Fold this sequence. Notes:
By secondary structure, this protein is mostly helical. It contains 15 helices and no strands.
Amino acid sequence: MSTSTPLxxxxxFDRLVLAALVLLALVWMLPLLWxxxxxxxxxxxxxxxxxxxxxxPFTLENYLDILHTSAVFRWLGNSAWVALCQTVGVLVLSxxxxxxxxxxEFPGRKxxxxxxxxxxxxxxxxTFIPLHRLFSYWNxxxxxxxxxxxxxxxxxxxxxxTQYFKAIPPDLEEAAMLDNASRxxxxxxxxxxxxxxxxxxxxxxxxxxSWNDYxxxxxxxxxxxxxxxxxxxxxxxxxxxxxxxxxxxxxxxVFAGLPILTLYLFFQKYLVTAVAGNGRH
Length: 281
């Protein structure tokens, strides 16, 4: 009787915590459900009612208006290409830099690493003016290079991969060195495959940040054919979008978020593993 009492109390506490987490999740999802519900409402109806989202009338007109925008698939392709290139570039550069900081000794290593970490404290917006002047001088406005290159500087990626490489036992590399394997071969065949959870986590965060980026494409892309999806959809909004086209505005938000949601659903296992710290062995 005395043994079962603590177990019952622990079970009741666990259920209480679970109920609290479910409640918080529902509260967190309410704005998303509100956005989704409004996206299926006629704009004329939303001009006078924004509090009724789960009952009629419903329409697909807002999504059809997005698809009827002639350049929307061009913008979608631009966003996908920019986000993909930035993700691949960040993975390559962060992995090489992280391995160098974690496993090699070279003059000024600690100072250089501290300078990289200092980049985490610098808001990206503070670099827009010098970057714009530099890219204008190089004639990189309205080019994919102009959209992609600034995103390759990823201090967080370097930090994440450095810490992940440090957590890998050096014995694995020492065994490979005894077989006369080069440092580059050890990196690609022994160490890098062990960092898949961290790589996927970094890829998701990088892709998400690039896909949702609005300010830099607003600065560097001035021609409609070079707009990313966020920049392009924003250009289709009127000055009275909140009052006259609220459903269209919400449909744009849902449309822009669907690729990210799909990406997360496919790779959530790796993301959870990396955050939990169980993917190092």
